[in-house]
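DM from R.C. (forwarded with permission)

"hey, sorry to bug you on a friday — could you get me a structure for this? deadline for the figure draft is monday and I only need the backbone to look sensible"
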Amino acid sequence: MTLPWTDRGGRVAPLKALVFAGLFLPGLWVAGALALGELGARPITEAIHQIGLWTIRFLFLSLAVTPLRPLWRWPKLVSVRRMVGVAAFAYAAIHLGLYAVDQMFDLAKVVSEIVLRFYLTIGFVALLGLAALAVTSTDGMVRRLGGKRWQRLHRLVYPIGLLASVHFFLQSKQDVTEPTVMAGLGVWLLAWRVRAWMRDGALRRPAAEATLLGLAAAAATALGEAAYYWLKMGVDPLLVLNTNLTLQAGLRPAVVVLLILAGVAAAGALRGAGARRGATKLQPAYSDAAAE
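My reply, with the result:
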């Protein structure tokens, strides 16, 4: 049997082992903080929020494998996509379980809250979707469903990500900074997927594509934040947009999205430059050998 930290040959795969161990750290941190009473006046509620936050982070990290593989020229990343996606489901299940704890295991109330509260309904639908993807993530299910059907099913991860983002945004209520950042990153992930589909998966200059899409995602984040504060509080959209340029209110979500995606694109450009230099150095040796 292949273990999560081994390759198909049964050998320890350092990348898989590191990622597998890392997936437990946020949960252990929350459990430790809960046990030590460091989660504030409403510890269970804070634990619910923290686990939910890591759910969407892991979900987006699993989606990020698709663009990061070609952008960073790191094909082995695909080996950890499955375990990160399953971890997102596990954290989502714990998120729901902690909510049941908070409701004193009154399952009737839990069900009624999920039915009556729109943001909880959205979150529960996203959880069901993650459960379906986790159950069908094994090699046996890939063979049973067939490659094409399996791929069609697992493309549902994108609408699931959208539902999770909406749930995250609605339940945040007051401070929507991080949900807005995650929404901006989600725009970039979806835009990359659409762009790759338009090019049949072949992006000739992935770093340049990532940069352009990053600028578009940051602009969309700024416009989305401005629209939210206008519709919710009547704040002048131009005032909100101006804060992204002046930084008077600190780093706004659009700026954070831009910095993250600029770093991602820069890493891809550096990897690409290194690969081209390596190819250039190898070329003369190859030509001399051929001439002999």
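R.C.: lifesaver. The longest helix spans residues 253-291.
me: no worries. Confidence is low (pLDDT under 50) at residues 282-292.
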